[in-house]
Amino acid sequence: MPFIPRRRKDGQDEHPADEPREQAAADEAAAVPPVEAAGQTTDTELDLPDDEPQAAAATTGDSWGFDDPAGEVEVAQEAEAEVQPGTVSVVREESPVDPDDEYAWHTGVRHPTGMPDAVEFVETHKAFGRNRILRGLNMGLPEGMISMILGPSGTGKSVCIKHMVGLLYPDDGDILVHGESVPSMPLDTLLAMRRKFGVLFQDGALFGSMNILDNVAFPLRQHTDKSEDEVLSIVNRRMDEVGLADAWDKFPNELSGGMRKRAGFARALVLDPSIVLFDEPDSGLDPVRTALLGELIMEIHAEMMEEGKQKRLEHLPAFTLITHDIMTARRVAQYINVLWKGRIVEAGPAEQLFNSDNAFVNQFLAGASRGPLGMN
């Protein structure tokens, strides 16, 4: 069939060859909407389709993998600076780190608190066979504060506790307690140093054959020369503080998980330690009892702080919680160390960490699924 050109309204013949060029010009014109003011670009102006979330992510910051990325503000500011009147600027987010560098997010930044460190790790290395746990760890736990060591499972949090009390020694580096090197201590000095610590283990670590009173009194009877009346006075005071004054004659198997935790807490306090360590105190507890235990930790720390100031103690009490529970961190922490792959990612006062612009810290403290930390 011979080709018959179509007639346009202006009287000119319309050829199919013109259609792609005209359509492309129309599409290009439609794709560039007018900009109302210099430097202003909105999702509406860009006319982003609802069925293309990847395009929307470039303006909302979702591609970073966390809900409210600190970097979003910087990207928006850069976009605003680049937009000229009558134009649309396309901003492409680029990863600020080398994806092949496993320590790319480890800034090692330690924001100051103005307090001396009760415990300090200095370039600490520890390996078990080929498994390197601590890899040049630099970390401080300040006096007079409730600190937290937060991080994914298997990053060496509990190993840190054993190094603090001299149950493990580093392959290289040092651990200082009130300025004294733990690995360099002779045995008698080490034993005396351990009395500075109180430790609440994950399950309370109570003796099943002893009632609660005898469990709490055990450190006093083993490590002091106090009379039985003095021992009972201290035990009753600590048990009353943790709400177990009426449970002195019960055995561990008669108590709930929360009560066992509190009994372990009371036992950790009877020697009046200046440093108290909590190894995952929220483990095995429901959210309500976890919150109540957190309140108890804060109350007792405040009481010990007041007592320490009144007595002008050389070292104010330092509480340290080893956990990966973010709700506990939000309620309790005054200072946070974020530990990953045996090193500190970032450390500082809790408020600063919860507003960090570090993508890993942001992801972990937000409990987000997308970000540098994956399932591996």
Automatic annotation (TrEMBL):
GO terms for molecular function: ATP binding; ATP hydrolysis activity. Residues 26-43 have a biased composition (Low complexity). Residues 44-53, 69-81 have a biased composition (Acidic residues). Residues 119-366 form the ABC transporter domain. Keywords: ATP-binding, Nucleotide-binding, Transport. InterPro entries: AAA+_ATPase, ABC_transporter-like_ATP-bd, ABC_transporter-like_CS, P-loop_NTPase. Residues 10-24 have a biased composition (Basic and acidic residues). The keyword Cell division does not apply. Residues 1-103 are annotated as: Disordered. Gene3D superfamilies: P-loop containing nucleotide triphosphate hydrolases. PROSITE patterns: ABC_TRANSPORTER_1 (PS00211), ABC_TRANSPORTER_2 (PS50893). The keyword Nucleotide-binding applies. PANTHER family: INTERMEMBRANE PHOSPHOLIPID TRANSPORT SYSTEM ATP-BINDING PROTEIN MLAF, PROTEIN TRIGALACTOSYLDIACYLGLYCEROL 3, CHLOROPLASTIC. This is Putative ABC transport system ATP-binding protein.
